[in-house]
Amino acid sequence: GGGSGAASVAGGDGPDEVQCLHLLVKHKGSRRPSSWREVNITRTKEEAQLLLEVYRNKIVQQEATFDELARSYSDCSSAKRGGQMQPSFEEAAFKLNVGQLSGIVDSDSGLHIILRKS
């Protein structure tokens, strides 16, 4: 790809718009180990990963939708919106195909899974 067309991003109409949902599970090593669900988060990173694997399997097996799980279990304030993400995650999201679920993503906020909606 040619890297010269950076100006075109400003248009913001259509195909380079990525809509994604994410589900965050914080752990005690998170930057701010507290959320609307739990004032003091004490779980380990390993426990957070196990939880996310459970949620991910439910989505893959179609036992629950990403939206439902994010609203119930995400430690991010975006949970109320069904997990709509900040743009900072969209870099990881751009790598996904539409409708694709990411693996577990590690950030300083905690562990996440991401679903690309469009």
TrEMBL record:
PROSITE patterns: PPIC_PPIASE_2. Keywords: Coiled coil, Isomerase, Rotamase. Residues 15-118 form the PpiC domain. Residues 45-72 form a coiled coil. GO terms for cellular component: cytosol; nucleus. PANTHER family: PEPTIDYL-PROLYL CIS-TRANS ISOMERASE, PEPTIDYL-PROLYL CIS-TRANS ISOMERASE-RELATED. This is Peptidyl-prolyl cis-trans isomerase.
